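Reply to dn_fold:

You asked what the input looked like. This is it:
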Amino acid sequence: MTVLITGGAGYIGAHAVLALVDAGEDVVVLDDLSTGVRPMVPEGVPLVVGDVANSALVTRVVGEHGVKDIMHFAAKIVVPESVADPLGYYDANTMKTRALLAAALAAGIERFVFSSTAAVYGEPDLATIDEDAPPAPINPYGRSKLMSEWMIRDAAAAHGLDYAILRYFNVAGADPKGRAGQSATNATHLIRWPRRRRSACGRRSRSTAPTTRRPTARACATTSR
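and this is what came back:
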């Protein structure tokens, strides 16, 4: 059994790849490399460069590699950019998830993990936020992810798909062995990849620390069927 990881050359996706490889699982990565980088994909893991919305490509990858599970990390994630380009975010995060999900169901995928965001909660008037807090996103990024969550839940109910949805708060850090970390030139994550590794990829070493208007009480929340 092979796991297909979309966005596996990106920050969070690369860590999922490493975790599965370390556990002895077979993995194939699908990434368009718009923000991800090839060196993030471990040696020996197949990398298919392409669009997750390319149904024919997804079908071929699933068939050739014997994929049964999909972990979907590919997305646009910058909140200010989503406000400036909402349609681009609904396309990248919602429409492409819909296309991937349709191809997955047609190919007989059994399990689907979706990388969402704590931005679906908006700014609730709560001392702490857990996964049972009502979603109320305040920007196109959060809304694009919440719409994808709804699609996945509805598709699961109709087709018997097992799924999990991951909602992250502030994601930071790198692989303890230095194999992966934040490498984007305009990263909005707090802690970035070690300079020596990013330099090898031709990336800049300068980083800035993002700010937030309120503290978050949990690192991530998970909902599942």
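Residues 2-224 form a domain with the Rossmann fold fold (CATH 3.40.50.720).
Hope that clears it up.
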